[in-house]
Amino acid sequence: MKAVAKAHTNIALIKYWGKRNDELILPMNNSLSLTLDHFYTTTEVQFDEALQTDTFIFNGETASDSESAKISSYLDRIRQFAGVQMYAAVRSVNHVPTSAGFASSASGFAALAAASTKALGLDLDRKTLSILARQGSGSACRSVFGGFAEWEKGSRTDGSDSYAVPIMSKTEWDVRVLSVLLESNEKPISSRKGMKRTVETSPFYSGWLEAVDHELKEIKTAIRTKDFERLGKVAEANALKMHATMLGSHPPFTYWQSSTMAVMEEVQHLRDKGIQAYYTIDAGPNVKILCLPEDEQKIRDELENLEMVKGIYGCRPGPGIEYKEKLPSLGDSPSPSDG
Q: Is it true that the peptide bond before 251 is cis, omega within 30 degrees of 0?
């Protein structure tokens, strides 16, 4: 009763920020993302009647008690869904800078959902898998799919209509994303805590929600017509609005650092020179830059001149859930590269 699954991270172009139900992870608004090929998690799950508890090995080491408890709690949902009682041994190899705003939880829980259900012999459709992945980490529901995907917030209290749907496959539009690494340390405020504080205390939050529906329509039109400038402008504006809500929270907080601002300014300078580049930032200090293939190297050359840039990872549209024969070796970590 063993299976291995691989899932990639995604970058939200229309952000998910805020929940209407914390336990089921039901969002306040729809969101839309692009799955990336360069960052991923591969997870092996083996259910065994002889086990007395769940075990979790992360990147070759026994996970912390808090991380192990999080995984075990999620597996309880899978066990309830499948109607089984067995414990599981989980091994996960993560090729994403963890907790730094590179969406490691998205790939992590998407891979865990896929591997655990497959190990139990369940042959699930992608909609059901997306619903289950969402209950581990909201953005994980989008990583079930490759390319562009939209997470529909739904309206039912049980979450049965809150899942991701594919918008455009990874092969249909060659958009590039430069993931700029500025800081790899764990962020001081988790995404869950940050969005909860924002929803409960920020007077700017209602304005954020009011703008999302229009921005979703705009960006889906941009994707359908392959209008890169429109896509970039909407994504950048949406990210700025999300981060503005945090400054209105009590107490206020931000994930940005001075290096974040420096990269944002550099992107604006690039546009002034006629190079199409747009930034987006999730709940962390690192910046992702949207660009077209013909501009990727020019942008990389400019960014490499900035002292605070620790690495630049070139990303393309990536695939959805994939099932594998075995875990990769720990030495296959992603490194800054042109691809």
A: yes
DSSP structural state of residue 317 = B
Q: Which residues contact 259 (CB under 8 A, 6 or more apart)?
A: 182, 183, 285, 306, 308, 309
pLDDT surpassing 70 at residue 333: no
CA dihedral 282, 283, 286, 287 (to 10 degrees): 20
- Cβ neighbours around 332 below 10 Å, total: 12
Q: Which of 180, 176, 178 is nearest to 259 (CA)?
A: 180
Map residue 152 onto helix, strand or coil.
strand
Quick one: tokens of 246?
């945090």
Could you give the CA distance from residue 243 to residue 247 in angstroms, rounded to a whole number? 7
More confident residue, 15 or 334: 15
Q: How far apart are CA 289 and CA 263, in angstroms?
A: 9
- Give CA–CA dist 41/59, Å, rounded: 10
Residue 197 has pLDDT above 70, yes or no: yes
> Could you give the C-alpha distances from 29 to 25, 196, 207, 320, in angstroms and in order?
12, 14, 12, 22
- Name the nearest CA neighbour of 91 among 127, 107, 115: 115
**Second-level CATH architecture of 2-324:** 2-Layer Sandwich (3.30)
Residue 92 gets the label, from left (phi > 0), alpha (psi -120 to 50) or beta, of beta
> Can you state the angle between helices 126-134 and 104-119, rounded to 10 degrees?
120
Q: Enumerate the domain spans of the chain.
A: 2-324
Q: How many CA atoms lie within 13 A of 135 on its CB side?
A: 22
Which H or E run contains 196?
Answer: helix 191-201
Are the C-beta atoms of 195 and 18 separated by less than 8 Å? yes
- The per-residue pLDDT for range 61-73, each reduced to its tens digit, is 999 999 999 999 9
Q: Which pLDDT band, with edges at 50, 70 and 90, does 97 fall under? A: low
Of 282, 332, 278, nearest to 6 (Cα)? 332
Percent of the chain with pLDDT over 70: 95
